[in-house]
Structure prediction request, 210 residues.
Amino acid sequence: MMDEFALFKGHRYATVVADADTQQVLWVGEGRSRAALRPFFTWLGPEGCTAIESVAMDMDTAFDLEVREHCPQAKVVYDLFHVVAKFGREVIDRVRVDQANQLRDNPKSRQVIKRSRWLLLRNPENLPEGHDVRLSELLTGSALEKLVIDFSLRNPHLGQAQVSRQMNDRYSADISPNGVRYIWLRENMNTMALRLAKVESLSNTAKDFA
Prediction:
């Protein structure tokens, strides 16, 4: 396995190569470039290079290219921490930004997506209390949210537990009572009076366009 470590402050690094089975350090060299790593393969020799079956490393392009040049038969195994970190930065963030850009005409929903970075990157077991509901709603998307809103307005007398049960029974939609309440609070319809007022408002709007 290969890794880098800081020698001093000021971005000065060294590279260490160790046996993954015994944890024994095999080689240390100053720098972290391809040229800095190359003496290791020279020291190892052609026979030693051929014997290498796999190499664990972070997602370092220099290490990767040098291993593939000298040990083409070896499998490169990326460190899980760096894979997850890269996925978070380059995949989840990209999707989040793209989704937010698609909601330019819906400022409220756009803000929810824009502010969700750490909600998406945290492990579920590390979420603060109550944030599991927010994560669930964010991941299930706007279709479920629209379904809850429509059903709640058609049945404004039902409480959050009843709506949750009806969502599961009628539509196989997995949403908890707290999830229903979260949507209600966001849409300012968390009491029967507010839901009835919203129904009346929508009804009046429909009449205006009739």
